[in-house]
Here is the input.
Amino acid sequence: MNMKPQTAQTFPKPTRRLRLGMVGGGHGSLIGAVHASGARLSGRWDIVAGALSSNPERAHMSGRDWLIDSERCYVDFQDMARCEAQRQDGIDAVAIVTPNYLHAPVAHAFMEQGIHIISDKPLTAQPDEIAPLLDAYKASGVIYGVTYVYASHVMVRQAREMVLSGMIGEVRQVHVEYLQDWAINIGNTNFESDAAIPWRFDPERNGKSLTVADIGTHAEHLVRFVTNLEIEALRAEFYVTGASKSMEDTAFITLRLKEKATQNVSKTLPGTLIVSQAMAGAQCGLRIRVSGTKAGLEWFQEAPETLSYRPIGEPEQMISRGHGAGMHPSTERLVRMKRGHPEALSDAWANLYTELGVAIEAHRLGRSLPPELVAFPTIEDGVHGMYFVDAALRSSISQNWETLVPQNPEPFQNSDSF
Ligand code: NAD
Here is the structure.
């Protein structure tokens, strides 16, 4: 394998810890503690404020356990946004870790106060929330990250570098799958017994898609991130293969991919995207395979430390995370353990919070960053994810190809200004 030696550019050192607030994510939530540990592990953030739960008692209990000052444990995120903006030591950014229907309202409240946004996915619950969110974002000038965390695994960065530097030749097809099993026995008749589940089964609070919105958006982002291709159109079949439910728990999607720079050229590439949350025996099986004219690449998130590189007609090479030995220098700035000491999803969260911290620190100090020093997912990626979900929903009904461009394409027209 011929990976040109270069000098790795390191991140600027922090001048102070950034102050993070969180909305949602307290005790009993699935993902809040994971955000918090990623932020702490990055070494760039202190968690100093929160409206951590919709239940005031739980919000305070979570705040106490996270050593947040009681005056900064809020029960209402609107109060939190106002009060934090008035403090000398107010938060620099808010992490939004609530059910989907609150992502946009919480982001509006904090953007109005000029506070940076770190939002979980999907960007919003409903497509009609996108345009006002983009308007508010453009008016606010804040940094808006979206936590498609898998793109922060070192070996996903490595895959992207190998594809973009031509090591697999021209990309010819892409296949991605994300398979889980948690919804196999959960359906319309029994979801209320699990306190964490109900909003996910409510199209108003979750959005109209269950699995495509939840994990399909991760898969869609991974395709775009690793290949730099855009999904132009798709054809989706939705299924319920687990317990009876009103939204899909499985989807098979065929993709038509296009190079970003050649949107008007007719050449397209095929891809597939398969997702299920009702696949017996599956755990967190996110896998991407990229096939080029010279070689293929494969990465699997349950074994995130390695990347399989298969040049045509040559033995498979297994690249392992670490320094040197085939690693692209730009990926090495995210390596925190030497090869042989495993890293995991928690390190990917820390990488995500590191890059967000670097960008927010630079913004705070009025400094610009070298191009491509950071590559965290942005609101633009969140918007693409929403258009992907919307197109999949339309296609599942029309049983036909649907383009991702929405009826009102305004948000795409200024995509350079995201
Ligand atoms: P959850 O239901 O387990 O937790 C949601 C939390 O939000 C709860 O603590 C709840 O009390 C709190 N909440 C609700 N209303 C609130 C309000 N008005 N003010 C303050 N807090 C409020 O949900 P979850 O599974 O943790 O998912 C939360 C979000 O994270 C979802 O959007 C989901 O898609 C996303 N998620 C992302 C990843 C990822 O890998 N990036 C993984 C899992 C979940």
Summary: The pocket of nicotinamide-adenine-dinucleotide is lined by residues 23-26, 28-31, 51, 53-55, 77, 97-100, 102, 120-121, 147, 149, 196, 214 (CB under 6 Å). The mean pLDDT is 92.
